[in-house]
Fold this sequence. Notes:
ABC transporter substrate-binding protein; about 15% strand; 2 domains; single chain; D-Maltodextrin-Binding Protein, domain 2; about 325 residues; 14 helices; 5-stranded mixed β-sheet
Amino acid sequence: MTATLDTLWFTRCPVPTATGIAADRGSLVAEFAADGLAVRSLQDAGADVPRDRHFTHSLTGLVREGGNVPALWARANGEPTRLIGLTWIEERQAILVRRGRGAVTPDDLARLRLAIPRRAIAIDFWRAMALAGFAGALGTSGRGLDDATLIDVDAAPGADQWVAELEALDAGRVDAVYVKGALAVEAAARYDAVVGIDLDAFADRSARVNNGTPRPVTVHQRLLDDHPDVVVRFLAVLIEAADWAATNPAGVARILAAETGAGATGVAGAYDWTDHADLHLDLSPARLALLGQQERFLHSHGFLARPVDLAAWADPAPLAAARELARARAHRS
């Protein structure tokens, strides 16, 4: 029996996403208004819907565009989600060091103390990001995490991004900190930390595989089974939002500032591609292979209860249908 859908929920991380663009422009609400279907952001839900649904994806009427660590974790824990799209969006990933240290190479990391944050949360994606970031840098010189000195840095669950690690760096307890995104640009300036290794400079994308690269869009199996048309239309709106973003750099910069909570300096420092933004989804073999690299890394380091079969998880049909719908709409307009 098909369940009634009164509210379609969406959630996204505070990073560049087509969902964030569509939400800011009112496109998601407008898409389903004539159906009498309410469209609500989990970030604005208040106390009526627990925020941990962003990580567990146990809310059946939810579409999630966010980091792959929680998405893979939820699937590994048995939540029947489906992967319906992947983006690859560069987010200024870097290894920071104290000013005055001098040039740092990936090989040098094996001789430094690397900050590995630890937070008491259900899935510690912050810790996973740091480990993957350092592993990516070390891997470019043929080294691995076993070659390095990893220093646990405890951070409160609600602590601001990168603060605990940068305080440890400033105090001399660690020598290097992995960071990414717009808020990291601003935080580095506050602590006078400088880029020791620019992960974005490596031509091989595999060095930057992490929580947000690639970033998945997932839905609950029940939503896909009961309301496949809603999922397709949602994806069509994301395609249209990505199309808009590709030709509206000023608008993208404004929306990213609102989405990330960073100022113009942070946005410009983290996202220098806003004049040719590409927020489009795909499920190409290349992107799935990069996600496979992340899945294996997370499982090998204990973040996943069991392996995730990406071929079984991914469903390309909704995105293919959404592309056809978006093309038909564009032709009509």
